[in-house]
């Protein structure tokens, strides 16, 4: 984007700021200007349906490497002789890598281009899945690290590609992207145990199956590598983000709600197996809960932007999440599906609101990109502590009842951070072209 376009964007933002809501208008104008400039200077995609299909297939692969492990965790632990603490580390490592490797994404994109990075990382993800399922305990942990790192990098890049190439439909495409992500998680949670049973009760085959969707996504993404894209050619420096309290509130909310989400991905089936369910039943409950997230992930942001701010919406979805978690942990097993549905409604809303807050708290797309990197980098690093804490507490106590304290503390922290992040304010930073 050149200087003339940038100036016209600024004039548009200033002229409309006094007429319409400051929450979304500046970002919508920025997105439309980006789209017009890119369409004039760089014919992006001759077959936009192919890009859309590629994005959906890539998004489908951002959770199976995480959610496929949970239903098989007990079997994997028995097979390899892992302690509960080691099992907790196994669920923690991928989430930790989401945060640690997220800052690499913009660096790699500026050096090689976002499309090439996505293709390369899909192949890296496939390698991690193969490593995790074929080389014993060392391969299990090393593959988990590689898989988490791959997902962390791609997860930062995809929203930027959506905003650039579907600028006039960014909201709809973000919803499609989120739904695909949830669908991938649900598919892996519900089908990994049946797949392992189909292949002779082999947990390695059940986990290794998910290399196929990663390779399919890479094939359909390949045409994007040759496309001409100009949005990543201009770099911006955003100053002051790490000193802004609102940015940290957004980051803490992202991290704490993610911590509960990855506790569910990593440990809910084991908790339910401990309560008497079979691994297949436990996997189906997790899968069903994640499928319910498809509805609330679309509805929650839409409802949240109808009020003056997002504080009430954050409290509601966090309350639903905590109610579902406590129900799955303590309530009579006969009502389990009701609590799982409640949990899905809550967690679909908490995740989509976390993404929405990044946009609403940013004045322009460049600030949003940097806030996204910060909230995912620091947030997922914080989130990784939750699954690890569950493993440690379970190892200490030999049961699951004490986990209620972990749920309560993390949930309360998320509500407190969300009450700050949900205010109708912008992060106070400076953005300048390099």
TrEMBL record:
Q: Which Pfam families match?
A: MFS_1
Ordered alphabetically, the record's keywords are: Membrane, Transmembrane, Transmembrane helix
- Chain spans, region Disordered: 1-22
Q: Which Gene3D superfamilies match?
A: MFS general substrate transporter like domains (1.20.1250.20)
Which residue ranges traverse the bilayer?
A: 49-66, 86-105, 117-135, 141-162, 174-195, 207-225, 246-268, 280-300, 312-333, 339-360, 367-390, 402-426
Which CDD domains is this protein grouped with? MFS_NIMT_CynX_like
Q: Where is the composition biased (Basic and acidic residues)?
A: 1-10
Q: PANTHER family attached here? A: 2-NITROIMIDAZOLE TRANSPORTER (PTHR23523:SF2), PTHR23523
Q: Which NCBIfam families match?
A: CynX
The identity of this protein, by name, is CynX/NimT family MFS transporter
Where does this protein come from, organism-wise? Answer: Pseudomonas mercuritolerans
């Amino acid at each position: 984007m050149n200087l003339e376009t940038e100036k016209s964007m600024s004039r548009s933002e200033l002229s409309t700021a006094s007429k319409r809501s400051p929450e979304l208008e500046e970002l919508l104008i920025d997105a439309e200007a980006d789209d017009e400039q890119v369409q004039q200077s760089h014919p992006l995609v001759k077959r936009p349906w192919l890009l859309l299909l590629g994005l959906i297939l890539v998004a489908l692969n951002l959770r199976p490497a995480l959610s496929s492990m949970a239903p098989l965790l007990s079997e994997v632990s028995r097979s390899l002789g892992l302690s509960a603490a080691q099992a907790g580390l196994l669920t923690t490592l991928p989430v930790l890598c989401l945060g640690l490797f997220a800052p690499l994404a913009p660096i790699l994109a500026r050096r090689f281009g976002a499309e090439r990075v996505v293709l390369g990382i899909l192949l890296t993800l496939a390698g991690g899945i193969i490593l995790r399922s074929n080389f014993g305990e060392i391969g299990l942990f090393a593959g988990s690290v590689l898989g988490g790192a791959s997902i962390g990098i791609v997860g930062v890049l995809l929203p930027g590609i959506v905003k650039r190439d579907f600028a006039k439909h960014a909201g709809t495409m973000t919803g499609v992207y989120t739904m695909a992500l949830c669908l991938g998680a649900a598919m892996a949670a519900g089908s990994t145990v049946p797949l392992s049973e189909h292949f002779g009760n082999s947990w390695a085959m059940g986990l290794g199956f998910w290399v196929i969707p990663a390779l399919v996504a890479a094939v359909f993404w390949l045409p994007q590598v040759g496309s001409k894209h100009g949005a990543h050619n201009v770099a911006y420096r955003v100053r002051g983000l790490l000193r802004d309290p609102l940015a940290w509130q957004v980051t803490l909310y992202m991290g704490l709600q993610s911590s509960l989400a990855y506790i569910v991905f990593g440990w809910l089936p084991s908790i339910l197996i401990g309560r008497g369910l079979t691994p297949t039943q436990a996997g189906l409950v997790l899968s069903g809960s994640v499928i319910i997230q498809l509805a609330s992930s679309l509805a929650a942001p839409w409802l949240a932007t109808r009020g003056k701010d997002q504080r009430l919406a954050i409290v509601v979805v966090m309350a639903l999440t905590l109610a579902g978690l406590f129900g799955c942990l303590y309530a009579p097993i006969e009502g389990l599906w009701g609590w799982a549905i409640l949990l899905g409604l809550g967690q679909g809303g908490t995740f989509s609101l976390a993404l929405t807050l990044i946009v609403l708290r940013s004045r322009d797309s460049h600030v949003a990109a940097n806030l996204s990197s910060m909230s995912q980098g620091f947030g997922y690093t914080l989130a990784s502590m939750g699954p690890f804490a569950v493993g440690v507490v379970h190892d200490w106590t030999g049961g699951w009842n004490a986990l209620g304290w972990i749920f309560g503390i993390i949930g309360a922290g998320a509500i407190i951070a969300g009450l700050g992040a949900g205010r109708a304010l912008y992060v106070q930073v400076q953005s300048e072209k390099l």
